[in-house]
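Dig into what follows:
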Amino acid sequence: MTGEPTNTPTCDADCTAVECGDGHHNPAAGEWCDDGNQIDTDECRNNCTTCGDGDIHPGEECDDGNDVDDDACSNECIKPRLVFVTSLDFTADLGGLAGADTKCAAAGMTANPNLPATAWRAWLSDDTGSPSTRFDTTFTGWYRLVDGTPIAKGWADLIDGNLAAPINGTENAAAPGQPLLAWSNTTTAGMKAGPDHCNNWDSAGFDPVGRFGNVTATNTDWTDVSDADKNPDNCSNNFHLYCFQNTP
């Protein structure tokens, strides 16, 4: 007797050549799954790997082998990105968007010293740019505070007007000091809210003015406080900055 046909690294048990997508799961050939379709976003990818098996395959940033979505590896095998509000506060003379990014990068060394300075972006808008033009809007993993608190899953969730938790933790995973406000001039959609950006974030004068968000809010006030009697305010105020990890 020759026994039952078995899978080999080059041949399926039915004696056909190994081919990912043929619907025959062949572990001997390194296939973790094979659902026989060409849908790359379902549980079995088109390279016959699956997120959640505990092994990191091509195209995966991580794989922790569990189905907890908002931990250190999402159910799509994407690492979370950090977000925090700076422990320091600043007048609106930030040196423009680039200067604000530099301040986020400096604080980011505490949040995660393994990330390069270029990984960080300030949530800030003026005539030269906004998060909608400067951020990775294709990101679909979790944004989390330094202490691990989930804030939003991906860019689409971040800009839907409702955060899972307020961005009220600093780069030190501590509560920020008063005032609990952050320079922004940014709409919920990540776009420029208007002309109130303290001369492109380069003025600390009493006039002009700048718009801001409330770090205790989870509704749209997190990025643009809706109280017209208070927002905008003078550029001489000292407010915090929201800082986002923009690259892996």
Remarks:
- Helices lie at 96-111, 131-134, 154-158, 198-201.
- The CA atoms of residues 20 and 220 lie 46 Å apart.
- DSSP finds four helices and nine strands in the chain.
- The longest strand covers residues 81-85.
